[in-house]
């Protein structure tokens, strides 16, 4: 029976890996087909940028409510509904003929996709209790990175055929897969989704109750600040690393982009999986492993960003930022498991939705701030050195989370 339950738990991760991949593929492929899109639907550069901006704004603002919906209703139904609707919107995007219609589909994409991540991660935690939590989370998050890297497929289809074709193909794939999930994706058994800390039965909970419960814990505020700062650094590096390579090492635009993505994304995926595996193994001996692993990872990432911005040797810079990508992702494998330890399980998805909302908001601010500093003639390498300092602050915030986590574990008299 235990082997059957374990297989089912990993099957859920496999099923959701595909959904996570489609989630990021559908949202990102539009930026890879700019020329094809603009040639058929007239728009300015500002309008083209607005297509992504409106998605992020709506996605971020709705994330807390989307998390609450996952806490209040069946997570599997929220996931399937989210996938079906955003896939339908993806298909609708292919039929847009004006900028206004295209902007509307991007807004609807933000609404529908916001409901996926909090529900998916919470369902994975329902199935994976303790010994496999971080690895399961890391494998699922790696699906989003695979989807991001596959975004170029949309650009290729648009260049080879028509831009509409990419949205038609992946929209239909998502709709078909949502029907498949309707028959295969189920809620975790009650005996799995209950812990000594809380019983995950459906209650008449309110959004205001969730907010009060979450913010009554100092550790949630620490975790919120931590995730915001970590997200700022992450988006700053990802967004400006190609520019840094181009200017600092006098590379062409295409070569700079190649160095910035070809090594960083694979290293990040490896980091997600390795961090998850190490955290789960260490958790057998220490209940704080899921805080210690990202703290150690970021302690390595900070000097790597600093040295990568300091060296005059291209090969060394590539290696330092590769190690950064590897160690930075120790955070993503462990964020939801840490949150699960700190908060009432009834509000787990809501808590992640709040983390997601603020991280999305401040990430855009961080990218803009880096551009503003460049306008003020601050060199890119100096901006990255500032970023390395922020990473060290993240380590300090994690230690504060650990202190409050210790109090929680003592209060409930068990180690998870």
Description:
By secondary structure, this protein is mostly helical. Helix 4 packs antiparallel against helix 5. The longest helix has 33 residues.
Tags for this model:
81% helix; mainly alpha; 416 residues; 0% strand
Brief summary of the model shown:
By secondary structure, the chain is mostly helical. The protein contains 18 helices and no strands. Residues 194-201 have low confidence and may be disordered.
Distance between the termini: 22 Å
User: How does the helix and strand content classify structurally?
Assistant: mainly alpha
Overall average pLDDT: 85
- Helix percentage range: over 70%
Rg, Cα atoms, Å? 21 Å
Task: Count the DSSP helices.
Answer: 18
Share of residues in strands:
under 5%
Identify low-pLDDT runs: 194-201
Secondary-structure element pattern, one letter each: HHHHHHHHHHHHHHHHHH
Largest sheet: none
Number of strands: 0
Shape: globular
Write the layout of secondary structure elements.
Elements: H1 2-28, H2 34-40, H3 45-72, H4 75-93, H5 99-113, H6 116-127, H7 133-149, H8 152-160, H9 163-184, H10 207-215, H11 218-248, H12 253-262, H13 264-282, H14 289-310, H15 314-328, H16 330-342, H17 348-375, H18 380-412
Helix pairs in contact: 1-6, 1-7, 1-9, 3-5, 3-6, 3-17, 4-5, 4-6, 4-9, 6-17, 7-13, 7-16, 8-9, 11-12, 11-17, 11-18, 13-14, 13-15, 13-16, 14-15, 14-16, 14-18
């Amino acid at each position: 029976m235990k082997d059957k339950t374990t297989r089912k738990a990993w099957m859920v991760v496999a099923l959701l890996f595909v959904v996570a991949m489609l989630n990021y593929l559908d949202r990102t492929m539009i930026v890879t087909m700019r020329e094809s899109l603009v040639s058929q639907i007239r728009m300015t550069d500002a309008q083209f940028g607005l297509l992504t901006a409106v998605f992020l704004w709506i996605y971020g603002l709705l994330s807390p409510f989307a998390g609450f919906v996952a806490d209040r209703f069946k997570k599997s139904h929220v996931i399937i509904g989210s996938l079906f609707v955003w896939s339908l919107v993806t298909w609708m995007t292919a039929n847009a003929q004006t900028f206004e219609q295209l902007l509307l589909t991007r807004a609807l994409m933000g609404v529908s996709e916001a409901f996926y991540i909090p529900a998916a991660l919470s369902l994975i935690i329902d199935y994976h209790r303790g010994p496999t939590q971080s690895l399961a989370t890391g494998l699922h998050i790696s699906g989003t990175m695979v989807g991001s890297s596959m975004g170029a497929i949309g650009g290729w289809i648009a260049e080879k055929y028509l831009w509409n074709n990419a949205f038609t193909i992946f929209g239909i794939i998502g709709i078909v897969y949502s029907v498949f999930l309707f028959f295969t994706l189920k809620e975790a058994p009650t005996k799995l989704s209950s812990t000594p800390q809380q019983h995950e039965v459906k209650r008449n909970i309110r959004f205001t109750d969730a907010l009060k419960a979450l913010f009554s814990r100092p550790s949630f505020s620490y975790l919120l600040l931590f995730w915001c700062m970590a997200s700022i650094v992450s988006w700053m590096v990802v967004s400006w690393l190609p520019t840094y390579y181009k200017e600092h090492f006098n590379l062409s635009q295409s070569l700079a982009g190649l160095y910035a993505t070809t090594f960083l994304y694979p290293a990040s995926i490896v980091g997600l999986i390795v961090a998850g595996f190490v955290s789960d193994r260490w958790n057998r001996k220490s209940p704080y492993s899921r805080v210690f692993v990202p703290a150690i990872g970021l302690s390595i990432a900070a000097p790597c960003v600093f040295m990568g911005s300091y060296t005059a040797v291209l090969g060394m810079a590539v290696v330092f930022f590769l190690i950064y990508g590897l160690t930075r992702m120790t955070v993503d494998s462990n964020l939801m498991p840490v949150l699960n330890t700190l908060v009432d399980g009834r509000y787990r998805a809501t808590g992640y939705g709040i983390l997601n909302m603020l991280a999305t908001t401040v990430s855009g601010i961080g990218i803009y701030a880096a551009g503003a500093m460049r306008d003020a003639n601050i060199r890119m390498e100096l901006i990255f050195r500032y970023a390395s300092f922020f990473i060290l602050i993240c380590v300090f915030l994690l230690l504060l989370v650990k202190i409050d986590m210790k109090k929680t574990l003592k209060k409930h008299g068990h180690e998870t």
